[in-house]
Design goal:
The chain is globular, with a radius of gyration of 26 Å. It has three domains: about 180 residues, Rossmann fold, CATH 3.40.50; about 190 residues, HUPs (Rossmann fold), CATH 3.40.50.620; about 100 residues, GMP Synthetase, Chain A, domain 3 (2-Layer Sandwich), CATH 3.30.300. By secondary structure, the chain is an alpha/beta fold. The strands form three sheets. Strands 2-1-3-4-9-8-7-5-6 form a nine-stranded mixed sheet, sandwiched between helices. Strands 15, 16, 17, 18, 19 and 20 form a six-stranded mixed sheet that branches. Strands 12-11-10-13-14 form a five-stranded parallel sheet, sandwiched between helices. Helix content is about 30%, strand content about 25%. The longest helix is centred in the middle third of the chain and has 22 residues. It has 14 helices and 20 strands. The two termini are about 15 Å apart. The chain binds xanthosine-5'-monophosphate (XMP). Xanthosine-5'-monophosphate (XMP) binds next to loops.
């Protein structure tokens, strides 16, 4: 969670998202594979609502959702290993089509009497798929195609009654089906971009096999959430902490669409935002969207408390505490407010227990969040949504591109980018100016959306330089730009040399205090995205 007030620690129950009303759904059971979330996202992109549930969630929980289809994900285990996740046979008796992917296929194969064994060689990365018999699942697709594999165990024989549909370089049986039974399996990963016909295969499963209606869209999400918010809130007063980030902004706009001026937004300017960001938030919400907004200029308070502090965790703690204090003061002024909007996303829900626990868990990202003991009932309109869906909902609500596509920004803001030193007003201003040059050039080069984050770091060191025949002793600005899908891992972005030169030369020419610009070329792991 990367926004000051938009998101907090996951809601206490940490339960899987509730299925929305009147929408066909396909449940993805998570066996711990690294692409499990991606399967659910792809299904949604194809217009069918999908939830990721732990593989051990229980048949009753699945039945309650009345899904049109069930997908068993990949996973790291060997189906024949002791303690490996098993298949509850009752899942096959629900009358719901089942598609097993990778581990999911191996599980179905083993459970239904086929042969799965460790192969002599694993199959990782691109592989050539040969369709032997298109059957129902692969109908209409090319006989030869590329697919993405990631497995060591292999299916050697399909279960009795199944047809082997395809083989690949190292998998004698790479796809199977038993149409009568409604059970399908593929060894490769249709959800990753390296399987060019992956979407087409998922689409066949959703439309042709499951007969799911493809009604899940940004417009349908807006309609549904607006109805839900109205039902929850009635005529009550609602408060929303706005950070300017996409999550809290979209959540606020949805609530405003639902209950209008029953909503009041509170924006706390802690003085650690990027250049002009505070003004932009105020202009967008107050002037453009006409949302009642209380803007609190708390810069002095935060800076006073940060004076003399250089330890990163202490900075985080102070900022978190002070944020809560300011927010509570403002909230207490809004008489009768009973509801609090949170921009909790579906990925937060999954990470807090909706998933199997196989995925890595974020730890420090509730800085800037609100404590759970606030006396409010939570309104969480993004709780079923992935980040890309939140952005599409933002666009659907007519929000400007700049807001909807904003890169993530940490709750403690620029304070944790002044590394090894104190976040003083002067240092913050310098960093803000350097950052503004970077953002400006990155946007001009058309790269802003391609990067997960791009920002500057200001270490607490000086270096020697020479400018205009004079020796200088100035600041170093670090350029950090990364690509990533989810911030769990990241790669340093290969920015063009010319662009880097332009950025460095502007920083040095326009900012007197800067005499050196360097580029961070560390991926995550081993580095983190931020420096502190
Ligand atoms: P790291 O540095 O751990 O960051 O690779 C991963 C993502 O989290 C953001 N980040 C934070 N967000 N409060 C936040 O709200 C924090 O204290 C914090 N620290 C890091 C970071 O910007 C990146 O997107």
């Amino acid at each position: 969670m990367n926004e000051a007030a938009g998101t907090v620690a996951p809601s206490p129950e940490g339960a899987p998202a509730a299925p929305p009303v009147a929408t066909d759904e396909v449940v993805v059971l998570d066996y711990g594979g690294q692409y499990s979330q991606l399967i659910a996202r792809r299904v949604r992109e194809l217009g069918v609502f999908s939830e990721l549930l732990p593989h051990h969630v229980g048949v009753e929980e699945i039945e309650r959702r009345k899904p049109q289809g069930l997908i068993l994900s990949g996973g790291p285990a060997s189906v024949y290993a002791e303690g490996a996740p098993r298949l509850d046979r009752r899942l096959l008796e629900l009358g719901v089509p089942v598609l097993g992917i990778c581990y999911g296929m191996q599980l179905l194969t083993r459970e239904l009497g086929g042969r799965v064994e460790a192969a002599e060689v694993g199959e990782f990365g691109r592989s050539d798929l040969r369709v032997l018999e298109p059957g129902r699942l692969l109908a209409g697709l090319p006989a030869e195609q590329t697919c993405w594999m990631s497995h060591r165990d292999t299916v050697f024989e399909p279960p009795p009654g199944f047809t082997a549909l395809a083989s690949s370089t190292a998998s004698p049986v790479a796809a199977v089906e038993d149409v009568e039974r409604g059970v399908y399996g593929i060894q490769f990963h249709p959800e990753v971009v390296h399987t060019p016909y992956g979407n087409a295969i998922l689409e066949r499963f959703l439309a042709d096999v499951c007969g799911a209606e493809r009604t899940w869209s940004a417009a349908s999400i807006v309609d549904e959430q607006v109805a839900r918010i109205r039902a929850q809130v009635g005529s009550g007063r609602v408060i929303c902490g706005l950070s300017g980030g996409v999550d809290s902004s979209v959540a606020a706009m949805l609530v405003h669409r639902a209950v209008g001026d029953q909503l009041t937004c509170v924006f706390v300017d802690h003085g650690l935002m990027r250049k002009n960001e505070g003004e932009q938030v105020i202009a967008a919400f107050r002037d453009q969207f006409k949302v009642p907004l209380v803007a609190v200029d708390a810069q002095d308070r935060f800076l006073a408390r940060l004076a003399g502090v250089s330890d990163p965790e202490t900075k985080r703690k102070i900022i978190g505490e002070e944020f809560i204090r300011v927010f509570e003061e403002e909230a207490s002024r809004l008489e009768g407010a009973r509801y609090l909007v949170q921009g909790t996303l579906y990925s937060d829900v999954i990470e807090s227990g909706g998933g199997t626990g196989a995925a890595t868990i974020k730890s420090h990202h509730n800085v800037g969040g609100l404590p759970e003991d606030l006396e409010f009932e939570l309104v969480e309109p993004l709780r079923t949504l992935f980040k890309d869906e939140v952005r599409r909902v933002g666009e659907e609500l007519g929000m400007p591109e700049r807001l909807v596509w904003r890169q993530p920004f940490p709750g403690p803001g620029l304070a944790i980018r002044i590394v090894g030193g104190e976040a003083t007003r002067g240092r913050l201003n310098l960093l803000r100016d350097a950052d503004a040059i970077l953002q400006d050039e990155i946007r001009r080069a058309g790269l802003y959306r391609e990067l997960w984050q791009s920002f500057c770091v200001l270490p607490d060191v000086r270096t020697v330089g020479v400018q205009g025949d004079e020796r200088t002793y100035g600041n170093v600005v670090v350029i950090r730009a990364v690509t990533s899908d989810d911030a769990m891992t990241a790669d340093w972005a290969r920015l063009p040399y010319d662009l880097l030169e332009q950025i460095a030369s502007r920083m040095i020419n326009e900012l007197r205090e800067v005499n050196r610009v360097v580029l961070d070329i560390t991926s995550k792991p081993p580095g983190t995205i931020e420096w502190e």
